[in-house]
Hints:
It contains 25 helices and two strands. By secondary structure, it is an all-alpha fold. It has a domain at 1-82.
Amino acid sequence: MLCCGQLWLINVPPLRVQLTGTLRILADCALARRRLSDSGAIPELCVALERRGSDRDVCFCIVRVLSKLSTYNDFCAALADCSRCYILFLALLNKYQKQQDLVIRIVFILGNLTEKNDQSREQFFQEEESVNTLISLFQTYYELDLNAPTWHHDRKGRNHLKYPSEAEDVLIKLIRVLANLSIHPRVGAALAAAHPVVGLLVTVLEYKSVDACEELVINAATTINNLSYYQVKNSAVQDKKLHIAEMLLKMLMSDNMDAVVEAVRVFGNLSQHHEIRDFIMQKKIYKFMIALLDSKNREVCFPACGVLLNLTVDENKRAFLMEEGGIGKLIDCLQDFGPADWQLSCLICKTLWNYSESMMSAASCFGGDTYTLLELLTALLDEEVELECSLDRDIKDCQRVYWEREFKPVAEKLLDRIQSLHSFS
């Protein structure tokens, strides 16, 4: 009986293809997967792939098997343990760069390998020409996408939008790999300074609309957001920050809420720079951020509040919060989320703290919301009720630590300031 690694010994091409095709079918069966795992199938498949790298059909079938198996954690870990797997995949990507069906599966495997494992991220990044290979693939499929037909005909001759296109699909999975790599601190910092990488991500935002391919645009924005976290010398994200902000403005104007939220997240990081804060005020984006506070959705309110917090760093930008009803909306958010989300509550208190820094009276600062805010802060600082909404013990312990270390100090300072201002009003 032949084992997986002996596939390369078979000199009858159709038989090799049939055998690898059978393995692909077996990969869908739980019992067969267990036996494949017990027999050490992954390293043997890698041997077969390396030995038959010049046989496109066999490579395709083996990659299909590995692609399926890599969706399971134990097989993915076994593949990551194969020291030569990254060299092998990079060689195949370079050899078969325009073979979309093969490329997309290899990139999918790389995405699975780098999704949860920091060691895999670093190991792949350290392989010679790894990032350059991804860049080359990106350029190839970007050019193919520019020239790809947008419409296809069904059997009845009707036109339909093909979504996503084959080229878009490759780009989506390539960006997923870059997003995964960017999570690793050292790798992410290096990618943030890699102008070709950031340039291609920005290109996606330039030429592709959310309506045309939602997943591609959002993934590109997510990766830019990851890279914008790194404050490194010669950061390509910082060099292009104003242009990126222009592209994000287009996303904010879309009807796609997922795209809007992702754009707001990027603005949250970029607004640490005064040029972006000026841009936000000039384009009146701050009004949009304040409006998002009405969403009652934590995933929307949190990044929007992050942008508002950064804006209040500049004293000359603080008045907008009162003018646009932002103070009342922030207090409503604090009331809505309260003990359920100390991280967001802390962010709101920091924003209100910055805002009230130079105010002379509570009335001029918080207007009719002063009493509401006083009562709310007093209630949230009460140790008897501060964790009443958390049922799970582990979550409760984590929440208590955050409440004590993060929320309580800033909330107490804010409460003292309001009481002091209020007593002199």
